[in-house]
């Protein structure tokens, strides 16, 4: 299955980059063709229509469970048709409201027409390897 891991993670955060690599490795081990794109850098050249499955990885906001990056709905709305596509919402744990933030991300994705079949709050790098097996 052609899969996209759409990252909203920081490039300078070592933990985030390790989690991203674990997610990709686990999804590839399941036989998926995986592309990893940075939403901030690749926004202009991103074509979501060609992917069968889209995994969105977002860091949680530490103090509020409601503030989704403004770039998320913009990318989903302008970078191709995502209506009817399967996907998952993955949130990197930070603070007390990570699960609430995950629900908010899911609602934003569903509002654009995506069908969310999996969601998870990633606690650490080892947990990312387990979560990556469920992508796709």
Class from secondary-structure proportions: alpha/beta
Give the oligomeric state: single chain
Strand runs, count:
5
Main β-sheet: number of strands, strand sense, barrel status? 5 strands, parallel
Helix % is 25-40%
Mean pLDDT reading: 90
Query: Which outline best applies?
Result: globular
Rg, Cα atoms, Å: 13 Å
- Low-pLDDT residue intervals, each spanning 5 or more residues: none
DSSP helix count?
4
Task: Provide the spatial order of strands within the biggest beta sheet.
Answer: 2-1-3-4-5
Task: State the end-to-end distance.
Answer: 7 Å
Element pattern in H and E: EHEEHEHEH
Strand content: 25-35%
Q: How does this structure look, described?
A:
It contains 4 helices and 5 strands. The protein is α/β, with parallel strands linked by helices and 136 residues long. Strands 2-1-3-4-5 form a 5-stranded parallel β-sheet, sandwiched between helices. Helix 1 (14-29) packs parallel to helix 4. The protein starts with a strand and ends with a helix.
Topology readout:
Blueprint: E1 2-7, H1 14-29, E2 33-38, E3 53-59, H2 71-78, E4 86-92, H3 98-111, E5 115-122, H4 125-132
Parallel strand pairs: 1-2, 1-3, 3-4, 4-5
Helix pairs in contact: 1-4
Features:
136 residues, 5-stranded parallel beta sheet, globular, alpha/beta, single chain
């Amino acid at each position: 299955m052609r899969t996209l891991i759409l990252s909203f993670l920081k490039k300078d955060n070592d933990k985030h980059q390790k989690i991203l690599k674990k997610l990709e490795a686990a999804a590839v081990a399941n036989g998926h063709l995986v592309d990893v794109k940075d939403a901030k850098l690749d926004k202009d050249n991103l074509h979501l229509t060609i992917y069968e499955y889209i995994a969105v990885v977002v860091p949680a906001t530490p103090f509020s469970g409601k503030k989704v990056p403004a770039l998320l709905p913009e990318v989903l709305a302008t970078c191709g048709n995502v209506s009817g596509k399967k996907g998952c919402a993955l949130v990197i744990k930070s603070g007390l409201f990570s699960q609430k933030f995950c629900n908010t991300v899911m609602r934003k994705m569903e509002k654009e027409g995506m069908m969310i079949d999996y969601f998870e709050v990633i606690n650490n790098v080892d947990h990312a390897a387990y979560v990556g097996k469920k992508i796709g």
